Amino acid sequence: MATDRLISFNDLPARDARRALQECCSAPGWAEQMAAARPYGSVEDAIAQSSAIVADLSVADLAAALAGHPRIGERATTDLSRQEQSGVDADDAQTKRALAAANVEYEQRFGHIYLVCASGRTGRELLALLRARLQNEPEDEWQVVRTELQKINALRLERLLAGSP
Questions:
Q1: What is the Cα–Cα distance from 127 to 143, expressed in whole angstroms?
Q2: Using one digit for the tens of pLDDT, what is the confidence trace for 71-110?
């Protein structure tokens, strides 16, 4: 059953829908395709559409999506990012320093920020994941980035379209 928020979203003018979607994911092509695919019968339908779009994004579109995310462990600039990275804030300064150093190493290796679905994870968990992903080949890492972006978009769409925390 559609929520009031989903119904309101489906009824938005295309420009307003794209703007709302870009709060979830800053890739313009993703937002354009998501807005064009409306109306959605359920939040799950929107999430499935999002995942399908992310699976087909070019590396340039993925880079545009990454531009909307802060580095893990850095002060987040949006409410969504602050909420998603809240587990990092609870960790010690040593973990934050280690994350900062590992972020630099990751960016040097892959040429883009480390993207991970941080919700519900501690700084130590995120650091361990980052270190493990440093072993990936660049083309494999882009696939991991896609998967993580799909997870993040799903959580954010849930908040946008159903009001879930």
A1: 19
A2: 887 655 555 554 555 456 655 789 989 999 999 999 999 9
